[in-house]
Pimeloyl-ACP methyl ester carboxylesterase
Amino acid sequence: MVAVIIGAALLVLALITQAGVLLVQRAHPVRGAIVEVSGASLHIVELGPRDAAGPPIVMLHGASSNLEAMRRPLGEGLAKNHRVILIDRPGHGWSTRARLDDSTPEIQGRMVAEALARLGITTAIFVVHSWAGALGARMALDYPQAVAGLVMLAPVAYPWPGGVGRYNKIVALPVIGPLLAYTITLPLGAVLAEPGARSVFFPQAMPDGYVRETATMLLLRPREFLANAHDLATLKAAVAGQAPRYAEIKVPVTIISGDGSDKTVSTHIHSQPLAATAPNAKLVVLPGVGHMVQNAAPDRVMAEIEAMIGAMAPSTAAAVN
């Protein structure tokens, strides 16, 4: 009898989840183009003039989010004078990937590089946040000709003490992870999304309507929740493998992080050692700023991006449009 009750409850939760997926996707439809690459389909939104002077600006979001997290605080402002490319990382937003295990910066960097090549973009400035800090660093190592410069916002770059949260490890497990993702994740996440987002913004206040305007609820779809958990569960080992190579990054790098107020990604563990290791790195530490640097100080971030573009020689800044 107990097994029957549990089975019925799981069936109900699975039906609620599927209905929720339909509602969330209807509320946040595809906004850009789908670019097919090996092992993934990437959702890409382009802003600004395609023939703008200087390199295009590619923006890559962190964990538990999508390209909308980079659009409003930065992308739309930069698009007044630059070509801006916003990308849903593989498995996030409206991007898909064939394998959940394609979760490392190395693999996702290959997919992003292939998508940009299909768009005719040979070099760009990359603006990367949090998890995507490791991705941007990896792309600068593996595709140095494609990366004209890196602007890194509260980036993850090195191994850190501890893990990434027990629930991410559980969700990344076979059988158990999918069972949870396809039953309780969306109903429970709908309740926890707002407080969870607020904690990432601390000590800044989360902007009104942030969860709605950034399509955060897309994360709660089973396929994306599983992909996000795999990204987080494999990240520590991935950065441990690539960190010894950071001295090879030759392009200009600007790292912008909060001080000790960032409780999500430690500036001391990540930003400071990276700035001391990459030969052409500049570190900007913003007092009292937490993890969401792009929201807390968008004008400063845009100024640093403009400064990087302005310092580039014409031959370096030229891009195929």
User: Anything to note?
Assistant: The two ends are 65 Å apart (CA to CA).
